[in-house]
Amino acid sequence: MANTHQFQTEVRQLLDIVIHAFYSDREVFVRELVSNASDALEKLRLKQLTNAAVYEPERELRITITTDEEGKTLTISDAGIGMTQDEVIEYLGTIAHSGTKKFLEMMKESQSGTQDLIGQFGVGFYSVFMAADSVEVTTRFWQPDATPVKWTSDGREGYTLEDAPADTPRGTSILIHLKEDATDFSRAEHLRHIISRYSNFVGFPIDFNGEHLNTVQAIWMKNKKDVTAEEYESFYKYIAHTESAPLTYMHFSADAPIVLNSVLFVPQDNPEAFGFGRCEPNVALYCHKVLIDNKPENLLPDWLRFLAGVVDSEDLPLNISREMLQDNSLLRRISGIITKRFIKHLETLAKDDADKYETFWQQFSRFIKEGVVTSWEHKDALGKLLRFESTFTEAGKLTSFADYISRMKENQKDIYVLYGASRAQLEHSPYLDALKARGFEVAFFTDGGDQFVIDTLMKVEDKEIKSIDRSNLDLPPLKAQPDTPGLDAEEATGLTSWLSSTFSEAFSKVTTSDRVTSAPAIALQGENDISPEIKAYMKAMGQPVPESHPEIALNPHSPIVQKLAELRTKDEALATLLAEQIMNTALLRAGMLDDPAKLADNSQALLEKLLSK
Ligand code: ADP
Ligand code: MG
Q: Residue 447: its pLDDT value, please?
């Protein structure tokens, strides 16, 4: 008895796109089905190795592909793990797979060029309808008492389910009736050509029209010297379900203290660009060529989730469960070793191919920064990978802390940084005055989150990193003093002590300083104050925000400040308004003004007062 089922709405939407896919993208479905067959065989192999009682235990683990040019069909079968009826309903009737879900999201977001995405992202099983008029899936689950099921669909509204013959062998067989304009896929030569491109990376023999097609090779177990760049590239395309080449890759083997073989790939583009949420890690875990888990969650640190590849260790127990994967000290060591090697790989890349590293940086900088904040043991190594602009670079050109340190002046102790929205904004910051006067370089950080990153990093080599809007900058004295007239010592003390007492609630201190020359005043964060960015974050998280104690540094050579000193004794009311204006403007510039309305009210009062004179 056949039962009719409706596809989930999302599946129908997906199929509608898939059916109209570009002709050139169509062949992607072959890779998807072969990779599913391979996954199913891997799962079965693991069952057998961990001593589960399997139906037809002697049945060979292989993929069988047959073409029938006359019948315009193509069949892809495997002796893998199979599916229960419930699984068939879930996997072949809803969007269960997260990659497919993501594809659907992308497609909804993107106004144009949705078709392009099919080639770039694995659409999974449903891609078969790019070439199929109708599809029959016959499957028997691995457990001896399972009932075989047959699923049939034309990829439109829904599918039918019925019992399959009792003699259905273990695994899954997919019979594809090709569309009139897709009969090419039933031509043996054409299909052989498609399959041969990646078949050597499939972990099981492929039998093609009765002929053995591939020599199975786990390239991560080979010696680096014996693998060509093309092989790495094809392997990447196969595991990442993509048509684009990797940006860079690392092949790493070790015998001690742990036997390890790993190949890791960095994709061409940041999969989380355009705000598409977190990507899933795609580094599979193997134990001596046996797949343990396709996408283990905690294998590598979270900030490396953009990587694709394989980690293989003979030292792992084969029957390791998901729970054990969560908390296994050997895995933690493996993760540490591989992370370290990968960081080193990036360092070498930066040295040997600066352009390529910069491309990497443009795409993946936020992951590296996330690593600084979340991977304490790697933060120093990661700090060296950071890139930024500075007062010494041309606009758009990047530099590193290593280069910065090599340019440090003899009397310069610390590394200086400044945060802001853009280089253009930072270039005009009065905080730079003191550093410019001493010929010191200042690094610009313009991404949201940069203050967290630098606050966590704290040091590079043995040099402390100091934000130049802080009060506790330990700068060497200036040799030459400006030749513009300034307040004398008495005037300065008079003014600052009056301001300190008048505004004691708002500021911890008011001083005159040579740290500012291009503006009347700057606001400085107190030594133990929390930076504005972190304050904003705490506020957003609903946490209580500790009070700040900013200081004001006045420029004693500013005509406005000199005027203020004079006014203090002549017209205290006007002097108070003027002082407030100067100091609130400094706060505003520093991102520390909590209430901008204050500044507006004050400037209005000040103008009224001045104009009524
Ligand atoms: P993915 O392979 O990324 O999970 P697919 O759309 O390709 O996504 O497949 C969805 C699910 O259908 C698989 O996760 C698997 O559980 C099931 N499946 C597909 N093909 C097979 C097969 N040949 N044997 C067993 N299960 C399969
Ligand atoms: Mg798949």
A: 93
3-state SS class at 537: helix
List % helix, strand, coil for the chain (3-state, nearest 5). Answer: 45, 20, 40
Look at the block and give the residue holding tokens 């070439």.
131
Q: Is the dihedral of CA 311, 315, 320, 323 positive or negative?
A: negative
Report all structural domains of the chain as residue ranges with CATH numbers, in order of start.
3-212 (3.30.565.10), 219-365 (3.30.230.80), 387-467 (3.40.50.11260), 489-526+544-611 (1.20.120.790)
Pocket test for ligand 1, best of 36, 62, 83, 97 (most atoms within 8 A of CB): 36
- In this structure, the residue with its CA closest to atom 2 of ligand 1 is 36
Query: E strands within 10-82?
Result: 63-68, 73-78
Give the side-chain half-sphere CA count within 13 A for 380: 7
Torsion sign across C-alpha atoms 582, 500, 496, 478: negative
Whose Cα sits closest to atom 21 in ligand 1? 36
234-292: per-residue pLDDT in tens? Answer: 999 989 988 889 999 999 999 988 999 999 999 999 988 877 778 888 999 998 888 88
* Tens digit of each residue's pLDDT (9 = 90 or more) over 178-226: 999 999 999 999 999 999 878 888 889 999 999 998 887 899 999 999 9
